[in-house]
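Suppose you are handed a protein chain with no further information: no name, no annotation, nothing but its sequence. What can you learn? This example shows the usual starting point.
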Amino acid sequence: MNNSKIAFIGAGNMANSLIHGLINKGVPQSNITACDIDQEKVQALVDTCGIHTASMIDAAKSADVLVLAVKPQVMEAVCTELRKVLSESGCLLISIAAGVPLHSLEAWLGSAQSIVRCMPNTPALVSEGATGLFANANTSDAQAKLAEAVLSAVGICSWLENEAQIDMVTALSGSGPAYYFLLMEAMEQAAITMGLPAEMARQFTIQTALGAAKLAASSDVPPDELRRRVTSPGGTTEAAIKSFESDAFRSIVERAIGAAQKRSIELAN
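A reasonable first move is to predict its three-dimensional structure. Written in structure tokens, the prediction is:
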């Protein structure tokens, strides 16, 4: 990967996190190019990372990997403009746009284009991302490994069995950080209501979430066993868990993730 020319169309938060992650993994700044209609975003990346900037067409012409990090609503226009250049270059295209299926990308870019569609999430901004990937039939094994190397620069990534699983990953990890933020928001507010100072309530809520996640990540047992280990019979944790369960907490979560999956499918259609 370190010898590959990587270009980003779009210089928003996700592109920013990927560029920083790639540089931290040893990719030379000189091998990375970015472009965006917002020149301030591009200039900020040039100033902080030392990467190159170019027009969209020039960036695509010299790229081995082209990362499409634009809004879904402008994807068709961007792909249509890039089509001729990409057909001549033979580079790998990675799309991180939510709700844009492979058949649309292939229609806009050409049926021979190598494309990997993926769904990263915002913790990629702190190199703790989770990304699901799915490649079209034109993508070689070498290109698949290259895509995996790019996305693993900001966290974990895993190949999906079929494209439909993109909607599942979107519902689980793509939207998932917001679910945890909502729980943290509710915990913080409950602590404040009980009389804890606001700053302390936030600090303890964040540290508890961080500690629980690290404990789960470093453990060889599943979350249900970790929950049982911290839930003493007749204790405070058991009282809280019983309250959650009586309010159908699991069903609430299942319905919410199902709603996100349904919406992801609707956007793709």
